[in-house]
Amino acid sequence: MEAARGGGEGEGEGAELRLLGTWSSPWVIRVKVALGLKGLSYEYVEEVLASKSDLLLKSNPVHKKVPVLIHGGRAVCESVVILQYVDEVWAGASGTPILPSDPYDRATARFWATYVNDTFFPSWRALFRSTTDEQRTEAFKNVVPVVETLERALRECSKGKAFFGGDAVGLVDVALGSHLVWISVVDEVVGVRLLDKARFPALAAWAERFLAVDAVKEVMPDVRKVMEQYKGFLAKWIASAGPS
């Protein structure tokens, strides 16, 4: 359990903030980035998912998953829901808005954040879970068209600016950017380059800009630790598959 640094702006909106999470989870990283963008102080509680705490089970009895944001004793679950909650509650804070003010732009941001969750992640997860060359070739072939769609979405949503959110990081940036460390680790192990500069120049440049944002740099997990964890996952999956 640890206290995360932040500006503390907006604490008058309620009582203390606690975030239940696991250190390498992209879904938890999303919330950490959002809280950092808003300059909020919070207590971070690391969960061990193999032996979930009573607090987690009580706070998220439906899915029993992280992240969970507890604000004034009340729990908010699901990462994208939490991002929108943080943006609405601390709308007047001095930090960066996560959603645009225009209703159409807000709807567009929600659409693409849902696309990241429901279309990109399942496609990329097949690559993440692959253990043979055949599986990896097929998974990579399937995820590339999804990334092509995101490349077009970035060009349209950014209107030539730095991020999906325009001049500043927004909902879609956080939703997709939270996966970047994991994407780079899987790339290295599998021997591919998903956000290839030649194929996806806009997304490749966007990824570099996103990772350079202070609120992102402060919470992204160490690549070496993620690599170690991923290799552990692979060893278990290969062992459970048994002889081919």
How would you characterize the overall build of this protein?
There is one protein chain. By secondary structure, this protein is α+β, with helices and mostly antiparallel strands. Helices cover 55% and strands 9% of the residues. The chain is built from ten helices and five strands; from the N terminus they run ββαβαββαααααααα. The chain has helices at 26-37, 54-59, 79-89, 103-129, 133-158, 171-177, 180-190, 201-211, 214-217, 223-241, and strands at residues 2-4, 17-21, 42-46, 68-71, 74-77. A five-stranded mixed beta sheet has the order 1-3-2-4-5, covered by helices on one side. A hairpin with a 2-residue loop joins β4 and β5 (74-77). α7 (180-190) crosses α10. The model is unreliable at 5-12 (pLDDT under 50).
Key traits:
244 residues; alpha+beta; Glutaredoxin; Glutathione S-transferase Yfyf (Class Pi), Chain A, domain 2; 2 domains; five-stranded mixed beta sheet; 10 helices; Glutathione_S-Trfase; EC 2.5.1.18; Glutathione S-transferase
Main beta sheet strand tally, sense and closure: 5 strands, mixed
Strand content: 5-15%
Radius of gyration from the CA trace?
Answer: 18 Å
Would you identify the regions where 5 or more consecutive residues have pLDDT less than 50?
5-12
The number of distinct helices, counting runs of at least 4 residues, comes to: 10
| CATH fold-level label of the largest domain | Glutathione S-transferase Yfyf (Class Pi), Chain A, domain 2
Tally of DSSP β-strands: 5
Helix/sheet category: alpha+beta
**Biggest β-sheet: strands ordered side by side in the sheet:** 1-3-2-4-5
Compressed to H and E, one letter per element, the order equals: EEHEHEEHHHHHHHH
Number of domains: 2
Q: Can you give the mean pLDDT?
A: 94
CATH class of the largest domain: Mainly Alpha
CATH architectural grouping of the largest domain: Up-down Bundle
The gross shape turns out to be globular
